[in-house]
């Protein structure tokens, strides 16, 4: 969004309890929790409302996350419209292997695209609860975050003037490239990174799903994934070289590879359709540790990024937000700092667990296409054990649905 307003030297100062930077699932969940507890907060978002409500993102929510949102009064439309998934399917060596993780774990997934969840959370916070959210802000800067008097300033897109918000705490929920993470001093906060060395071509097709559950194709030509997004739209993934140009993948090439990599005896033929999204994701992950500095507390992708291999990112963002929201209420309402003091450690246990699961699953997905016969054999054996052993299957099912979450 381009700021066309004339610059102005006029500035103003306001006071609020918490400034939430970023209106994604993490920031909006924190804001709704604060608003419900009558804790003053302001949400700042650099994009427009229309943009964040349409931005394509993840679509798989674990049951614990949905139930937590439901208890907060934030899941009415989700529960009404989401599709429930309790099975997935692995396809390799020309065979289909149905995995009924819902029966093993007692839990399931909800397929609900992130833009719809963001739309719901904005509606509840701004339209129903009268929360303060400011879209299209520019030049966000944090000040004195290592003190008890932090502030956040920004340029108003309408007036061009600078606005400063003095506050008690800042929730940094503005993603991997946001302003909050960029201000962390490297001598106090570390970032652990991992590069997978692979890419995924992320596709959205105007085509109904071609399977009644998520399907994972494990093939020597590369991984392929099939995930329903709606009765009319399907998400597909194709393994590709990192940094590949999406324009290298014509409509014909995409569908030829999907047909090849997802082929299995008895599988329904894929229904082709127009590709409405096509982008390459380089698989990498990172963890910021600790997830706080001074009065700045990071949540969601600002604190950790998971490659979409395990469909865990949005769930972790919600987990962070639930913990952070409650900790901020205790601090702002009662002066109780224990929740904020333990926030990072409470989040990081689950963060690292999900990172490990994603790496394990990546080996399964990409072993056959690694070009290493030994690795292909090892990962094939691992998958067969997971499918055949009740003990191994139960362990995988629990990790896949995150059933040990504490919310």
UniProtKB/TrEMBL annotation:
Record-listed E.C. numbers: 1.14.13.2
Stretches assigned to the FAD-binding domain: 15-357
A family per Pfam: FAD_binding_3
Enzyme class: oxidoreductase
Example GO molecular function: 4-hydroxybenzoate 3-monooxygenase activity
Gene3D superfamilies for the chain: D-Amino Acid Oxidase, subunit A, domain 2, FAD/NAD(P)-binding domain
Keywords: FAD, Flavoprotein, Oxidoreductase
NCBIfam families: PRK08243.1
Protein name (record): 4-hydroxybenzoate 3-monooxygenase
Organism of derivation: Streptomyces xiangluensis
């Amino acid at each position: 969004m381009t700021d066309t307003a004339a610059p102005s030297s006029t500035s103003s100062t306001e006071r609020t309890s918490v400034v939430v930077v970023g209106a994604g699932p993490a920031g909006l969940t924190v804001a709704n929790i604060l608003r419900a507890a009558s804790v003053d907060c302001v949400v700042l978002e650099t994009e427009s409302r229309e943009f964040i409500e349409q931005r394509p993102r993840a679509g798989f929510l674990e049951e614990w996350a949905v139930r937590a949102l439901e208890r907060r009064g934030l899941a009415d439309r989700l529960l009404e419209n989401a599709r429930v998934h309790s099975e997935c399917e692995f396809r390799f060596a020309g065979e289909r292997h149905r995995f009924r993780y819902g029966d093993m774990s007692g839990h399931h997934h909800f397929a609900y695209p992130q833009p719809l969840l963001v739309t719901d959370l904005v509606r509840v916070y701004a339209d129903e609860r009268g929360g303060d959210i400011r879209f299209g802000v520019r030049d966000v800067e944090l000040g004195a975050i290592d003190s008890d008097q932090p502030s956040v300033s920004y340029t108003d897109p309408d007036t061009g003037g600078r606005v400063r918000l003095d506050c008690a705490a800042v929730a940094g929920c503005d993603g991997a490239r946001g302003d909050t993470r960029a201000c962390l001093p490297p001598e106090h906060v570390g970032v652990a990174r991992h590069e997978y060395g692979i890419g995924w071509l992320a596709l959205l097709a105007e085509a109904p799903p071609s399977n009644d559950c998520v399907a994972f194709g494990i093939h020597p030509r590369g991984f392929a994934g099939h995930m329903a997004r709606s009765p009319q739209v399907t998400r597909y993934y194709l393994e590709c070289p990192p940094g590949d140009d999406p324009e290298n993948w014509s409509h014909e090439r995409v569908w030829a590879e999907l047909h090849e990599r997802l082929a299995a005896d008895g599988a329904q033929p894929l229904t082709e359709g127009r590709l409405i999204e096509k982008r390459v994701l380089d698989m990498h992950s990172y963890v910021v540790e600790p997830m706080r500095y001074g009065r700045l507390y990071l949540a969601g992708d600002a604190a950790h990024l998971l490659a979409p291999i395990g469909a865990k990112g949005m769930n972790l963002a919600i987990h962070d937000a639930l913990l952070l929201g409650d900790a901020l209420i205790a601090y702002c309402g009662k002066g109780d700092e224990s929740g904020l003091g333990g926030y990072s450690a409470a989040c990081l246990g689950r963060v690292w667990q999900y990172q490990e699961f994603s790496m394990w699953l990546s080996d399964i997905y990409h072993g056959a296409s690694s070009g290493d016969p030994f690795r292909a054999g090892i990962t094939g054996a691992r998958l067969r054990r997971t499918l055949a052993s009740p003990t191994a299957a139960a362990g995988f099912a629990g990790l896949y649905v995150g059933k040990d979450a504490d919310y």
